[in-house]
Structure to design on (313 residues):
């Protein structure tokens, strides 16, 4: 067999697959979280909540780690040997999607804890407190741990090598929902900080202002654009091709957001800036691998139309 040509797209796919695998590897074997239910609080009820949410999330990380092994193995094979049979590719994609869905389902205990707290709150709780509880915890956790993994499973079920239009449709829907999940969860953290610390928690530091704007408005704008792109692509007649350049722009911008948030702390951060936002984004964010996405998105910007799907179901 002749050596396969190494292209920027193959290299980008390989880098993203390795980033996905390495972050999952770190998450599974980093056991610093063990016992934090005793370190973080002396309240027995709160300690139990931390315990069940941590253990549930860890259990969900195991199938995601397996998905990482499959993804990086497939990417290496694709880079070295070239593409496999179309049926095998779809089997690999389905397996990764199912394992990824199990990971997101593992966060359901966090949503349950938030919803339970909202339900058992005293009746005299103010409407402001209810809104804060919903926006900073219950709603984003429910969307990411219930709705999103269900859509992932639907995508896995719908994938069919003989139905390219269906593949594109549900891939776009899933990607758009993922953008919305990232906006909702990250926005909710800033919402919580403003609720408890006031606007000074943001306006006192220019780097926080920029991070807040990029999160609340930047991710929202990207999500809205993705909705428009998805709707226009589905309505296109014939619905047979996907504009890879537009997809590349969205993938690159999402990756740059994560990369900026990470690097901004390294270069401009400090203990004086530490808040729930940075605690989550740097210490508990299991999706930091997404900062590698520009390595995949940028090659897509230069992809030719000949590389796109050109048949419809």
């Amino acid at each position: 067999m002749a050596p396969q040509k190494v292209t920027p797209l193959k290299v980008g796919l390989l880098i993203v697959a390795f980033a996905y695998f390495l972050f999952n590897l770190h998450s599974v074997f980093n056991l610093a979280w063990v016992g934090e239910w005793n370190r973080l609080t002396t309240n027995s009820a709160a300690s139990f909540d931390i315990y069940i949410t941590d253990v549930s999330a860890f259990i969900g990380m195991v199938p995601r780690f397996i998905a990482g092994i499959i993804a990086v193995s497939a990417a290496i094979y694709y880079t070295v040997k070239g593409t496999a049979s179309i049926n095998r590719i779809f089997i690999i994609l389905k397996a990764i999607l199912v394992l990824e869905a199990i990971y997101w389902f593992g966060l359901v205990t966090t949503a349950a804890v938030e919803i339970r707290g909202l339900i058992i709150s005293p009746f005299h709780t103010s409407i402001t407190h209810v809104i804060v509880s919903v926006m900073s915890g219950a709603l984003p956790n429910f969307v990411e741990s219930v709705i999103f993994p269900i859509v992932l499973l639907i995508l896995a079920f719908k994938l069919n090598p003989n139905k390219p239009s269906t593949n594109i449709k549900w891939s776009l829907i899933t990607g758009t929902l993922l953008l919305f999940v990232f906006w909702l969860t990250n926005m909710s953290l800033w919402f919580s900080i403003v609720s408890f610390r006031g606007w000074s928690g943001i306006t006192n530091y220019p780097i926080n202002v920029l991070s807040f704007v990029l999160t609340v408005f930047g991710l929202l704008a990207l999500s809205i654009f993705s909705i428009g792109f998805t709707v226009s692509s589905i309505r296109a007649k014939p619905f047979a091709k996907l504009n890879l350049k537009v997809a590349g722009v969205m993938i690159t911008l999402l990756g740059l957001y994560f990369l900026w948030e990470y690097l901004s702390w390294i270069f401009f951060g400090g203990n004086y800036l530490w808040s729930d936002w940075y605690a989550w984004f740097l210490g508990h964010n299991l999706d930091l691998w997404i900062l590698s996405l520009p390595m995949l998105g940028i090659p897509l910007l230069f992809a030719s139309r000949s590389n796109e799907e050109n048949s419809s179901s």
